Amino acid sequence: MTTDNTVAAPASSPMPLVYVRNVHKSFGHLEVLKGIDMEVASGEVVTILGPSGSGKSTFLRCLNQLEPIDKGFIMIDGEQAGYKLQDGRLVKLRAGEVRRQRRKIGMVFQQFNLYSNKTALENIIEAPVTVHGETREEAVAYAMELLKKVGLDDRADSFPRQLSGGQQQRVAIARALAIKPKLILFDEPTSALDPELVGEVLETMRDLATQGLTMIVVTHEIGFARDAADRVIFMDGGVVVEEGKPEDVLLNPQQARTRQFLNRFIRA
Fold first, then answer.
1. Structure confidence at residue 89 (pLDDT)
2. How far is CA 21 from the centre of its chain?
3. Does residue 225 sit in helix, strand or coil?
């Protein structure tokens, strides 16, 4: 049961799009998140770095309510995730209300998660039509715009098996954008790709970063963090160890654990 989930008003003004305080998450006896505090402003691109097992992906899943938190609270676009204030107390949202909140968030996973029996176009329009109630004509028109944006407008009728891994991930990015989210989450979007395909996905993400989208990106791609992020966060052991501008965290880290992690990439 979630405890200690009362909301304290953020000190910053205006309220950031993402406002997280003291978030804890355990799986059985394993505590994965140990009190995460984070703010992300509208239009900001934030990358989260850290070793495997540091809690990065779990944190994203908590933001999108794919995993319930055990303690603390998360606010997205002024609403507390999973709760509402009713008669002066916080009550858990029903499943339909949770789905409504999640419509504000797009997510791109490591493994693409495309429907194998649907074309690229059909994958993209699925949520807008079946969940958001758009007409098929509206959804198709916007999906074609998105496919053009990710450089795949000529592959609208292709099935996932007919696309390379990089192309599938770009379709997945278009699908996440199709719901017109306030926030888009990327969970190591290039980790399942062959090295020669990584560049095309990162280029698509760099283009998105210049368009004012609010993005939280879990990645091991140090170059992307350096070039595209407004802020870099380093996590380890379920806590935020260090955060700041890319040039500060990546070139002049203050914490020994951050330096140790980054040195692996420098030696590589």
1. 82
2. 17
3. helix
What is the DSSP secondary structure assignment for residue 70, as one 8-state letter?
A: S
Q: Is 43 helix (H, G, I), strand (E, B) or coil?
A: coil
Q: What is the pLDDT of residues 140-171, one digit of tens each?
A: 999 999 999 999 999 999 999 999 999 999 99
82: β partners: none
Q: What is the pTM of this model?
A: 0.91
Model confidence at 119: pLDDT above 90: yes
Name the one residue in this structure whose structure tokens are 């004509």: 137
* CA dihedral angle for residue 233, residue 235, residue 241, residue 247, rounded to 10 degrees: -30
Task: Return all residues near 177 (Cβ < 8 A) that are at least 6 apart.
Answer: 106, 146, 149, 184, 208
What Rg do the C-alpha atoms of the chain give, in angstroms? 19
> Of 96, 103, 228, 78, which Cα lies nearest the Cα of 177?
103
User: Could you tell me where the beta strands, DSSP code E, fall in 130-208?
Assistant: 183-187
Q: What sign does the dihedral 198-221-23-79 (CA atoms) show? A: negative
Output the pLDDT for position 87: 80
User: Both tokens of residue 158?
Assistant: 């292709």
Asked if 247 and 223 touch (Cβ cutoff 8 Å), the reply is: no
Q: How far apart are CA 49 and CA 91, in angstroms?
A: 34
Which residues, in sequence order, are bridge partners of residue 38? 20
Residues 6 or more apart whose CB falls under 8 angstroms from that of 153 comprise: 144, 147
Pairing mode, if any, of strands 18-27 and 239-244? Answer: unpaired
Burial degree of 135 (CB within 10 A; 0-12, 13-18, 19+): exposed
For 3, the 3-state DSSP assignment is strand
Q: What is the mean pLDDT of the chain?
A: 92
